[in-house]
């Protein structure tokens, strides 16, 4: 039922009796310590867990012969805590000691030997060494297939573990194959409302979510949720996990209000069921913060992320990977609002932890490099951005299969840099590599594939090859129309891209038509202070300026500026863009003093937010010099 304080109360009562009536090294006392440790483990208090597991272990070492199976079990318990604390070298050390005992004390097909191999596989899974994880999970599976009945639930656990590795590797067909094997066993072996059956449904839902098949993902998560509602008390943490999994699907669909509603339900359960410093609460704050970030409510996002960070700082050790993930999410918010020094500060803190806590080729380290690359990209420092994107790529190339979607993300990021520096041949080359991976691993209407088509279209647009650009923009647009609701922000991005192409061709009425469609969708789909709205206003303003309708151009650009001033830091480069665009309108109207002031503001902002060699700074300075000559 998850009533940990009650469980602790009864175990402690039993322990006090044992301490009075038994000698200090009696195995029953060790079991009592182990029970208390297990409750603390479920509560997420790993230091207390370790304290009681070590008390039990010390008794076993004194009371039992060196190859006794209970001593092997104790090594596994201590190893599991070190695993939870992300001290993977210690976890392996204890698991391997446990394995050595089991090898000597037990027959080769004993289930406990399978349990030991499984634990070691879990460590390799956590450190991102998926090939080794599969080796140990497979050893566990072979033992269980020989030792257990074909419908034993532990066999389903093995299939689930192997499925999880394939899911992380991006091999979704293999992941589904193993998860479905687990599901078949669970259906036969368990009653229809057993929580383990729900776990199987949830796992399959996660794969469909990763594949972008959101209706299927929701179908399986809903099956799991119905079981949890029947089988568990209303405040059980597993019910909260179910709400979070469904929330993740709605997040990926872009329905942030629905996702937020589900994440809030999960959070309320965690608050009532778990201690204040439990890691699940931190994860919950993180999930809610991500929704606010997606909605461009950066103040609320930071508030939630900082709550998550405070919990992690109290609950885990200074070099725990979860702490680094918190620093990374906060860094992303500061990047989005244009506070690049703060973004670097948090990403660097994350990087230091990952370097200490994880092996050098762990995917988390690649994500960290990617985040740092994004900050340099936002600043317009393309050489530095490319350096960090390539570091991320090298890690993922070594750690992941050649067609993993995370590799495609690397290719896309590198392609965007080459596009921005005008190396269009290289840009197309990298975006095309990403496209091939997405087409191979994702469903044909996955949003990542549409984003990739958009990126390729943008390169061709910049090259002036408008027929090719339109071909790829149309491919993206068809995906967005079929894959998401009509008011979804990605559909607006698609209209904006097509509008920009028509603007570049000088077809301003067609450009306005598509920009207006984008604006209407953006106003419906997004929240009033979302920065994508500012981009839409800016696009429309540029077309009106080109058409000579300066009053409408000013109106649109000023809307963009006001919105950006509300949401972004005062030195964000997007504010410089707005100032420049307004200055351009004033210059075209012959109001040179006003234009001069706007260009000067743009220069001042850009000098604070962009590297000194950035082309935008050069453009703003040139505009300022030119307009001063007209005054």
Automatic annotation (TrEMBL):
SUBUNIT field: Oligomeric complex composed of two heavy chains and two light chains.
Pfam families in UniProt: TPR_10 (PF13374), TPR_12 (PF13424), TPR_8 (PF13181)
Protein name: Kinesin light chain
Function: Kinesin is a microtubule-associated force-producing protein that play a role in organelle transport.
InterPro entries linked to this entry: Sel1-like, TPR-like_helical_dom_sf, TPR_rpt
Entry keyword annotation includes Cytoplasm: yes
GO cellular component, one term: kinesin complex
